[in-house]
Amino acid sequence: RRAASASSRRADAVAMGKSKDTTSKAIDPMALHRKLEPLYELLDKGNNKAALKGATQLLAKHPNLQIARALKGIALYRSGKKDEGVAICDEIKDEGPGDDNTLHTLQVFYRNAGMPSSIVSMFEAASARDPKNLEHLSLLFSAHARDFAFVKQQQCAMKLYRLTNDPKHVMWAVCGILLQTRGMTREERRDATLTRLAAGMCAKLEKNGGVTDRETLLVCARVLRECGRGRDARTLLESALAEKCVPMKAERLSLCATQAAEDGDVDDALAHWRGVLKEMPDDWQAASCAMDLTMRGTVAAAPRKAPASAGGDWAPDDAFTAEGVRGGGGDGDKDDVARRVGAMALTSPDGEGVERGETLVRELVAAADEAGGAMKVGRGPYLLEVELAYRKSQLRGSSSTTTTSPPPAGASEDESLPAAMMKYWREFGYWTSCAKDLAPYSRRLLETDADAAAAVRERLASEAAASAAAAASSDEPANRKFRRAVAAEAIRAQLGSCGGSWRDRRDSNGILGPALPSSSGRTLATDLMTRYREAREVVAGADPREPTPADTLALLAVNALAAEATSHAARAYANGVGGEIDVDAAAEATRALLVAAACASEAMWNSPNHAELRIGLSVLYTLLGAHDATCETHAALDCKNIQMDTMAHLELPHLEGGDDGAALNWFAARSDLLATDAGKDITENGVKAYDNGVYTKALEFVDFHRRLNTSHALKNAAVVKWRAALREAVVGDAAAGAKPELVFNVLRKVLRGAADACKPLPTRGADWPSSCFNEDLCTNPAFYPPHGGLASLAAADWWRSRGVDASPRAGAETPVAGAHDVGV
Hints:
Blueprint: H1 3-15, H2 29-44, H3 48-61, H4 66-78, H5 82-95, H6 100-112, H7 116-129, H8 134-146, H9 150-164, H10 167-180, H11 186-191, H12 193-207, H13 214-226, H14 230-237, H15 240-245, H16 249-263, H17 266-279, H18 284-294, H19 334-341, H20 353-370, H21 374-377, H22 380-396, H23 417-428, H24 434-448, H25 450-471, H26 478-494, H27 520-538, H28 549-572, H29 583-606, H30 611-623, H31 627-635, H32 643-646, H33 648-657, H34 661-679, H35 681-691, H36 695-709, H37 712-731, H38 740-758, H39 794-801
Helix pairs in contact: 1-2, 2-3, 2-4, 3-4, 4-5, 4-6, 6-7, 7-8, 8-9, 9-10, 10-12, 10-36, 12-13, 13-14, 14-16, 16-17, 17-18, 18-22, 20-22, 22-23, 23-24, 24-25, 24-26, 25-26, 26-28, 27-28, 28-29, 28-30, 29-30, 30-31, 31-33, 33-34, 34-36, 34-37, 35-36, 37-38
């Protein structure tokens, strides 16, 4: 749409003898604009046939007019004549576009055609013709960024800086250097010439007053850290310049604390974390890191990600662990990550740790009380009392960092983890978050002291009953009473009352759990569903889009029935694969799963947007072999975009295990769309981040692109797509009555596509970790352990593996759930 002005500049250049006129005869700029405007309109509206006709008519009068030829190439490409369209645009590119309008038009064409190398070569040639053209150089930098050519990206940015003296171009170059070190270990990055070069550039930029914003300062701090100058990075983060660039004090203190911990300066790190807690008392990450430094030799109950370092870090390559936190760092150095989290001396417990931990928690709770209590500052300081009890039990135990030991002789029983959990429930049981807050501690207690867990279950049941009886005559709101009772039931379930979870059975990789004896699951579920129906009156009028406390009771009933089904299935397949099956036990397992599905369906009727219930119902239908019901239930989740990467492990079992090719193709199409986005939208967002000066996001987008480009789920989906096409070609409606040669041609096309899709797939050997396993295992129901084998056999493996303990395979962080499971 800039044809008129571009043509005018070109005409002036011809008149001055600076350019060669490649048109057959002179054309008035305004007349050219009037002729091109309809072509743009036709292409915008998708009327490619008319646009092609108009471009052809214009070229009949002006056969060498490049912009008209480019528009003709676009119209041909969109009309299905892709080779002809590409040939015309390549011809113009090789000639050298004579104006910026043609240059930009070709850029759009090549971008939409997925030909980034052509964009690079075109702008390289344009920059060679006019080395001082800032627009051409900027577009060349963007082309290199889209092509992930980090060396050329750095070089182009430096050319821009020499012409403009603009600090942002220095940062473009520095980011290019950081991206070149992506595959190095921490030690290699520290000693690399590249990182020292980047540090020198940042130092010069700071000296010249070029560090004036948050993003520039954070990247400079990251460069200093990467080249082993952590204390210099901390000095920068603590400076007056940092106060100006990072005005939020809590964020600045957090960055300083993380850097101090990495430098090994425990006291300084702790002081900074205390500063964060003064600003934000409910910051759980700050509180947990402070506990790490105060009670050295202990670890937190809940795994967590390392605190963010200044400028960010490279994303880890590892899979999600069972509890949803990735292990390892960008260079795979897990010990280094543990150190950066703040556990500075994991193997050397400190005798004074208990006293320091008690002092820290006491001061934080007192400050929270003074500020108005949990309703004002949040529940973090009060939950820290439970964390303190858990860590104290570690210091009382053996050298193991996960042992929970009883209080020593003479110590108060109130110091124990069970007592702290009970106290927290009494004070915060009516909070919706109570059960989730205590979930990590329930899991640790169940793992280490089954008797204590059973005692807490009983105490919760009796106190909840007594509380309900007392509340009947009190003025406490009904909703509040009910939430406290539901929290007690949910915590009891975490401690095993509903059979437990596959996450609890680490000794058997989760295969044997959960389980409940015959009929006990149905008895418990009957009570829970009765209370659920009564509770519907309490939550009447609630927004159906939001989960209610009543839904928790239905979910626990489902888990109890599935746990009983597990016990029946274990009996049915106790003789292993190929052995005799106990048909009666298998029927009981099926009946329990059917009742569980009925309970979930009833709850879904009232809360259709409850994700846990819907996923649980979908998995139940999968285990029952009800393909259509599973597809219908799962479809309402409307998985798309990144969920095709994180939730594929919940979709593929029923899609591949069924016979609905249309549903499988739908899944493959959505996965293809995400893969396409990885190649286009993510790279475009990265370029925009450079233009907008958000350099840390530009680095993150490169990491995100790599994650999707190497995604195991997306690679798997590509193979699934061709497997579905192969099945359709052989036994589908299209194959019925078709001529043999037609079937053969279809098969040849399908097999070639399948072969191409399989090429990037890793083997089970040394190349296996080359894929990113991004599946979110937190979404798996308690009764459905992760399955890393053939998705079509996931349900069969669940049934046959209930009675068989599986040995862990080397490197597997999630359970091996059957004969066809290769582990994750």
